Amino acid sequence: MNYSLKIPIGRFCYKDNAYLCMQNEKSMKNIVWILVVIAMIAGCSEARHPLLKEAADIVHQHPDSALALISRVDTVSLSEADKMEYRLLKIMTDYIVLHQADGDSLITTCVDYYDKHGDAWHRGRTYYYRGGIRRHLLDSTFDAIKDYKVAESIAEDADDELLKNMVYENLAFANYYCINPLLVLRYSQKFHESSMELNDSLMTLRSLHMCAAAYATMQQRDSAYLCILKSLDYIDLADSILRTDIYYNVAAMYLEKGDDDNARKYLDLCSNNGAKNVYKGHLEEARLLKAQGRYEEAIEEVRKCTNEKDPIVRINSMELLAELYELTGDKSESLEMRKQLKAYDDSVMTANHSLQIADWQQKFDEKRWEKRSQQRMMKMGAVVVIIIVLLLTIGIWWHRRRMNKLGFQLDENARRITENQAEIERLQQSGEASEQTIADLKKQIEDSRQRIANKLLTGTRQFVKLQRKEPVADMTAEERQCLIDYFAQLRPKRWQEWEHTYNLLTPAQYVFLILQDDLNYDDNTIAQILDVKPASLRTVKSRIKGRER
């Protein structure tokens, strides 16, 4: 089953606290600067010429009105950006409305400019329209597809549904005439999905028509029939050219089903519709005559379209003619026609660079998806790093908070002892307190001293372990803090030197300093006590070094 497509030439587009305060102040300054830059950018975007801005907003839906607007623009006083936008819009409207362009040099200057200075909207459309000019007006399909592919990547990255819709249709058509059926089907399906997303009935009709041809080329008849029948629901939206093509497809469908009456009905509708695709009319008429066994008449009919410029129609005509010759018993003519068909098919493939174009598109997509995968991996990696840093920060904060709390408890017990002693002296001097009150205060003093003693005792035990070079890998956070508190009492001068030299060391780092600077152990001994590899001590030393004030 074969269906050929015709492109209506008129349709090329659519519609610490001080430290923290300093950091906060710096952050606020940065935010202010960001807001200023955003405001400047916004101001620049609003500085566009009002007529150009209005024309850009309506160029796809109302190109005639856009052309009228830009014709009123005084180009003398335009900024560089507005001059380039004027040039782009003029090229677009000339192309859409007048179907003309002065080669691709002017649009190429737009491509070069917007590659450096443009947003996705402008970049995508410069590539798309250069592709259109190269394909429709310069007959350079390969170069056109290259531009369409760049426009496709821009449209998909920016989620520009309108541009995607335009690009998918033209990529489907371009690959259709290059005879790349797999790519035709791929882009026809994308075109249909995009048309549905836009809720554009006319584009839905065009996409169904294209999908029917794509499925037919791939011999997926059921899917082709479904698209053909659905297209009839939108037939009132079609112009005479598209309407005729749809009727031809419906006629072809009924011919394949053996329903000659309905086939004739739709062929007559083509004639009554003022069919302009006369070659396709001859082809379908010949198929109907073949189905009726009128082979000689069918041969005369199909001979009328063997010189058609459309390669698909011509190939289908030659195939049908070879079949008809064989049915009439003229084997030699059938064989000769098949030889001509093979030669013509090869010449079309060569002339259109079909295999080269298909291969280039595949490699383009592979590179694009590889780049996207790398970007996704980088984003995921960045997220993972952020999460790890956040967790580490929270962990360090929690650990330090706990250690500070333990140290605070020791200081708090000492403070309570001092306060309770002072209160006892005051009460005794004033004679206000009872013996029970004083006894209670002394009990609190004793409890506080006991808690301090317990902590210092725990710290002493841990320090003795270090002196004996016993492993302390199983030391708890509380025991480690008790060790540090004990050492601060034992070596107050050294402790003050460390406090002056380093900023916010962890308890584990203080333990290392005790082993290295106070007990003067070598790295192997320290590694044995801490149950770590000697090489890992370099990291500990480096981090302590990084904490120097």
Please describe what this structure looks like.
There is one protein chain. With 549 residues, the protein is mainly α. It is 79% helix and 0% strand. The protein is elongated. Mean pLDDT is 80; it is low at 4-29, 31-46 and 402-409.
In sequence order, what are the helices and strands, one letter per element? HHHHHHHHHHHHHHHHHHHHHHHH
Total number of beta strands: 0
CA-based shape: elongated
DSSP helix fraction: over 70%
The largest pleated sheet is described as: none
By DSSP (H or I, 4+ residues per run), the number of helices equals 24
Radius of gyration: 42 Å
The assigned structural class equals mainly alpha
Provide the residue-averaged pLDDT. 80
- Report strand %: under 5%
Low-confidence blocks of residues: 4-29, 31-46, 402-409
Distance between the termini: 83 Å
Describe this protein with a few key phrases:
549 residues; mainly alpha; 79% helix
Summarize the structure.
With 549 residues, the protein is mainly α.
Walk me through the topology.
Blueprint: H1 17-46, H2 50-58, H3 63-70, H4 80-98, H5 105-117, H6 120-137, H7 141-158, H8 161-177, H9 181-198, H10 201-217, H11 221-231, H12 240-257, H13 260-272, H14 278-291, H15 295-302, H16 311-327, H17 331-351, H18 354-430, H19 435-467, H20 477-490, H21 492-501, H22 507-518, H23 523-530, H24 537-545
Helix pairs in contact: 2-3, 3-4, 4-5, 4-6, 5-6, 6-7, 6-8, 7-8, 7-18, 8-9, 8-10, 9-10, 10-11, 10-12, 11-12, 12-13, 12-14, 13-14, 14-15, 14-16, 15-16, 16-17, 18-19, 18-20, 19-20, 20-21, 20-22
